[in-house]
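Now for a specimen:

…
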Amino acid sequence: GLVHFLLIALVVVINAQVAASLAYSNYSKTMITSDLSNLCQQMPYMPGCSIWGACNMSKVSDSLCSNGWGPLSQICSTSQGESMYMMPGCGNYKAVCTVSNGAAPSDCTSHLSLLLPTTSVVQANVTALCKSNTCPVCTTSSQMVPCYTLDLFSTLCKAHPSDPSCIGWNAWCSAGGSALDYYCKGTSSSSSHVYPSRLISSVAFAAVLSSFYSLM
């Protein structure tokens, strides 16, 4: 409870102090990968983590990957991304991309996937879709979010593109074009996507989201 989030706050402060002096030129691919690992171990169901997995499998255009800048900005950016900048794994990104004078490095925003649904939006739509359609075995009544929700969302919307819950998915696919073929084209088979091994209940998922957003 309170102790847990006080510890998170302490880690955020320490992380920010360490990252404060980080220059863009020193923010290496290895460091970005480490930050993404941190973020996606904590919240593997974020769309940015799904994109990172797709990047690692060479399933999406490099314009969405760019040595990790794409997935990282999807999670940490406050302009279009998930806005999880309070998480420790976003500390380096925040230090590099928050500038008081001049322009931030282009990598901070140039690889964002326009109109990518956020975690909470994807979860709400997946929940609605699974009430009226058959979902993969990875979803049950007691564990509603054991899958990378963006992957599951895409699988369901490929099969039911006219469903009202897929309006956001259709808009995202239209905006992204061929760079998103992995998510937006082809078969609707769930076997084509990779899901995380970590399971989380829908109640826990909602509690985690609520807690993190309350810190912002």
Observations:
- The CA atoms of residues 25 and 81 lie 23 Å apart.
